[in-house]
Amino acid sequence: MANLVDEAAPQFKLPDHEKHRFEIDKAACMVNLVMKDISWLVYVVAEEENDNPIEEVRLTVPITDDPTQTVLTFRTWTLGMAACILLSFVNQFFQYRSNQLSIGSVTIQILVLPIGKFMAANLPKKQISVPFTKWTFSLNPGPFSMKEHVLITIFANCGAGGVYAVYIITIIKAFYHKGLHPVAAMLLAQTTQKISRGFALYVVACNPCPSLSIQACTPMISPDLSSIMMKKLAWKLSLLIQYLCNVAHTYIYIYENCRALHEKEKRKKGERTRLQFFAIVFVASFAYYIVPGHFFPSLSALSFVCWIWKRSITAQQIGSGLKGLGIGSFGLDWATVASFLGSPLAYPFFSIANTMVGFILVMYVLVPIAYWSNFREAKRFPIFSSHTFDEDGQTFNITRVLNEKTFDLNLSEYENYSKLYLSIFFAFIYGLSFASLTATLTHVALFDGKNILKMWKKTTTAVKDEFSDVHTRIMKKNYAVVPQWWFTAILVISVALSLVAVEGFDHKLQLPWWGLLLACFIALIFTLPVGVVQATTNMQIGLNVITELVIGYMYPGKPVANVAFKTYGYISMTQALSLLGDFKIGHYMKIPPKSMFIVQLVGTIVSSTVYFATAWWLLTSVENICNPDLLPDGSPWTCPGSDVFYNASIIWGVVGPLRMFTDKGVYPEQNWWFLIGFLAPIPMWFLERKFPEKKWIKLIHIPLILSATAPMPSAKAVHYWSWGFVGFVFNYIIYRRYKGWWAKHTYILSAALDAGVAFLGVILYFALQSKDIYGPSWWGADISDHCPLAKCPTAPGIKVKGCPVL
Predict the structure, then answer these.
(1) DSSP state of 174
(2) By three-state DSSP, how is residue 137 classified?
(3) Does residue 713 have a cis peptide bond before it, meaning omega lies within 30 degrees of 0?
(4) pLDDT tens digits for 634-675?
C-alpha cells in the first residue's frame, strides 16, 4: 500500500516545500485506497491540509472565523467615509501638479487604528433609534474589530483608485477652452465609474474564468460559481495557481498588517513598534518635503550633465531628466520616486528589473538610433516630448483644423496646413503600446493557455462546491451571498445613466450609443489576459491605446468622442480587476459579502463625487491651470498627465489613426509593432521549454518589458532612475540581507513617506500657493532641471523660441 502511494506522488509533481507534508500525512490516508482511486487519495491528502492552494495564504490566513465580530458600525461609516473623501481629494489635488503623488489605502489603514480604538474607548454605548423606523444602532457596539478595520480600508481604496473621466473634463475646460455643463461633467464622472463597476461585478458574477484565474476565486458573489477546488492535488498546485502568489501576497500583506496592528505588539529593547516607526517616518517625510515642495523645487530633478555643458543641445538632450534621456539624473524628493510609477517598495524585484530593462532598451537604444539617424524628420522636433508638431517644428495649431461649431476636424484646413508630427520618443511609445497588447495575448496563450482551458472546463462543468477550500466553506456557512439581481440592477442603471450622459446635454461628449456598448465589449475580451499578466507581475497593461485606435478608425475627427470611448472601455477592465482584489481581501478576512458590496457601492459614489468636485474647483479657481507658459515661476499646476491626455485626443480623435498610421500619415511603420509584439514572447517560450533548468529565463517577461515605458511621457527619465534605484536597494539588497526588517517595515515605510508628502503638499497649497506665494525667488525655485536646450530641435533652419538656430 505504501508503495502505491509513493508511486502516485511523482506524477503530481509536488514542489519541494510540499514533499515533507505528503510524507507525514500519507500514512493516515492509506485507508482511503480501499474506497477511492489514487486521485481521490491525493485529494484527501490535500484536504488534510484543510487550506488554500497558495502558500502565502496557508502560512498567514487562519482557517477560523468569528461571525459575532462587528462589521458595518457607526465607526465603519464615519472613518470609512472620511478616509474615502480624504484620499479622493488628495489624489485628485496632486494629479494636477508636476509630481503626481498617489496615496494608497495602506496609509489610511495605519492612521485609523488609533482613532478607532479611541472611539471604542470613549463613545457612549447607548442604543440610538432612527426616527420613523424600527432601526437602532450604537455609537460604540464594542471593541474596534479587524473586520471594521478592513471595511474602512476598502472604503479608502475606493478613494485611492482615481476617476479617469476627470481627464476629459480637464481637457475640455483647460485645453480646448470649451464649456461643459457641470451636471454633464458630474454624470460623466459617476457613470464611467458606475458602468465599469456594474460591468465588473456582472462579469465576475457570470463568468467563472476571470474570477478564478486572476484571484483564485471570489465565491462571495454567486453561490453557483463558487470556487470548485479540483480533486487532484496536481490541479491545486498547478502553475496557474502558483502564478497568483504575487497578487495574493499584496492582499495577504494587507491582511497581515491589519492583524499586526490589532494584536498587542511587544516592543523589544532597542526596537520600535510598527506604529512608532510609522510616526517617525511620517514626521520626517512631512518635515523634509518643505524643502523640495517650497524652498528648493529643483531638488525633484537634478541633471548634472546639463550644468557642465550649458551651451550644448546634444549634451542637454542626453542629460536632462525631464526633457531628455536622463543619463546621470536623479531626484531627492519622494514624490519624484513614487509619483508616476507608484511606490517601488510595493513591487517584486523581478517586475522592477523587467521594467528597467524595457526602459533602458527604449531610451538608450531605440530612441537614440532613430533620432540621430533623423528617422521621419525626428531632428526637427524635441527628442522627448508629449506635444504635437507641424512640419516646421512648431507646436501644432489645433485651432486651425477644428470646426468651432461642430468641434470636429476641418479636413480642407488640415490638408492645407500640415500633417501631424510627434517627437520620436512619443511615436515609439504608441508603437510599443501596440506591441504590448499583442504580446500579452501571445504570452498568456503560450504560458497559461492550457491551464486556463482546463480551469474553464472544470468551472463550467462542475455544479457542486463540495471540494471548495476551507475559506469558501466558512463563508458559505456563516454568510449569505449577494443576490444576483443586485448586480443586474447596477448594470442596468449604470448603462441607462451612461446613455443619458453620452446622448444628452447637446451631445457634448460626441459618443453615440453604440460606441458605449462597444467599449464595454472590448473590456470584456481583455479582462482575462490582462488580469493574468497583472497576477504574475503586479502591473497592469491598459486598454487606452487599443480603444483609441478602434474608435479613431470608426468615428474619426471627434476628439471628445475618442477620449470618452477610451474611458468607458479602459475603466471597465481596470475596475473589474480592482474589484476582484478587494473582494479577495474580504474573502480572507471573512467579511459578510453584502457588507462588502454596500461599502464598494457607496465608496464608489462618494469617491466619484469628490474627485469631480475637486477637479471642478481647481479648474475654476487656479488661474491658467495646465498652461505652464502663463503660470508664475515655481507654480506646480502643470498637469503633466492631462497634457498627454490632451495630445492623445488630437492624435487619435482630431486627426485620427487613418491620417497618422497609414500611408496618409507620417508613421505607417507603427503598425508593424502589432506583429512584433505578437511574435516577441515565442523565443522566450521556446528557451524556457528547451532549458527548464535555467531559472533566470522564466523571469524574463516580454509584455512587461514592452510596456515598461507606458507611463511616459507623463513620467520622465528621472522618475524611472529614482524609482529603479530605490526599488533595487529595498527589494533586492535589503530584502536579501535583512529580510526580517524588510518584512516588518517596508510597506509601512512606503505608506508613511506617501502620507508625509501628501499632507504637507495640501497644507502648502492652502497656506501659501493659493495666495500665489511660491517660495523665494532664486535658481532652485524653478520646477525644472535647468536644461533649457533639451527641448530644442537639431535640424538646420528650424526656429523655436528659446533655442539657437543651427
Answers:
(1) I
(2) strand
(3) yes
(4) 778 888 888 888 888 888 888 888 888 888 888 888 889 999
